[in-house]
Amino acid sequence: MLESVRHLDQVAREWNINAEDVLLIALNASGARSPLAKPRMRFQLRLDSRPDTPLFLILSLGRQDSPFELDEHELRLNGEKVGEIDGIEDDDAVLGYWRGGTRMLTLNSNARSQCAGCVFCPNTLEDASDPKIKALDLSGYLGALASNSGMSDLASVETVTVCTGCFLYEHLALDHLAEVRAAMGANGCTGTLHFLSSVLTSEEGMDAADGLGPFHLTLTAECFTERRQILKESKAKLTPAEMVTALGRAKRRGITTDFTYIVGLDPIEDAVEHLKDFVPVTTTFPRFQTYQAHNPFMDIYRTPRSETIEWHLAMRRRMEELFAPTGLRPQWWQNYRSPWCFTFASEELTGAKI
């Protein structure tokens, strides 16, 4: 992926992309070698080239073929220090965590063990921690989280995201979302309820979601080729056309729409051919995530040539061509595996990085 810091700088010049974005793409795609005895860790990174900008990452470790090495103190590219590490911890399942300061609260509020899982998902690597919040506990949990964060309530929270992909049916997801909205209201939060899922698709489901107040649907598209081999059934059964239709239903109701997509599973031309259909039904920047292979088995699902940095930069450029005209822009604090951190289509990106 990258041979050295000198190689990194050379690639950045050739592609006219800042070196930090090239490094972060390669790091997410390659994982790292590490003496830490965990398959996956979350941490804060300060790049030596931008020490005043802390970045959060969640990374695959134990990748002995990676050019990157990470310990509790620093990140190295083939032996040369490129950043400092802080706040490293096991990426186990937690009930809730903040992004963007306290602007966005993410909830893992349904038991993950109910999910059959997709091949790229790290859940099977995690410890047995399998949180589930019962409806009667939700309000109390949100209140305790606010108090522990130095807040009297959640009135200032802009978004509460439910990201657990463990709902087998649309009606079960909607029941849980109604419980979350009620708990938000009990703690003074009138912000957007954000849901990442593939099960919310029908006209009736969109009507119910629209009735939950400000709502944001992120459809978990993930990939377009080899869907039956890569995705769990509830995702795989949706065709790209059906996903576009579902997002269109949401958009017509004024629901905020976007989707998740894993960069590195599809050939570039196949990806672009389908992604262009998603542009008209997307109202906020999609969650494009660099594919993280956590072990050699997961490597087999990479599309040919995506093990090279050039493939990733070519794909990044094609996605920029699709979405630059929309005015929508990515923010790293919303997506720690993004192909963009500091620039997008030669534009400087602003906003909180953590």
Describe this structure in a few short sentences:
The chain contains 11 helices and 14 strands. The protein has 354 residues and is α/β, with parallel strands linked by helices.
Number of domains: 2
Cα-atom radius of gyration: 20 Å
Assess the beta-strand content as a share of residues.
15-25%
Strand order of the largest sheet: 6-7-8-9-10-11-12
Give me the CATH fold name of the largest domain. Answer: TIM Barrel
> What structural class do the secondary elements suggest?
alpha/beta
* Secondary structure: number of strands: 14
C-alpha termini separation: 26 Å
Q: CATH superfamily name of the largest domain?
A: Aldolase class I
Indicate the CATH class of the largest domain.
Alpha Beta
pLDDT < 50 runs, ≥5 residues: 124-129
CATH architecture of the largest domain: Alpha-Beta Barrel
Q: Count of helical segments?
A: 11
Task: Explain what you see.
With 354 residues, the chain is α/β, with parallel strands linked by helices. It folds into two domains: 1-91 and 338-354, no CATH class; 93-307, Alpha-Beta Barrel (TIM Barrel). Helices cover 32% and strands 21% of the residues. It contains eleven helices and 14 strands. The strands form three sheets. A seven-stranded mixed β-sheet has the order 6-7-8-9-10-11-12. The chain is globular, with a radius of gyration of 20 Å.
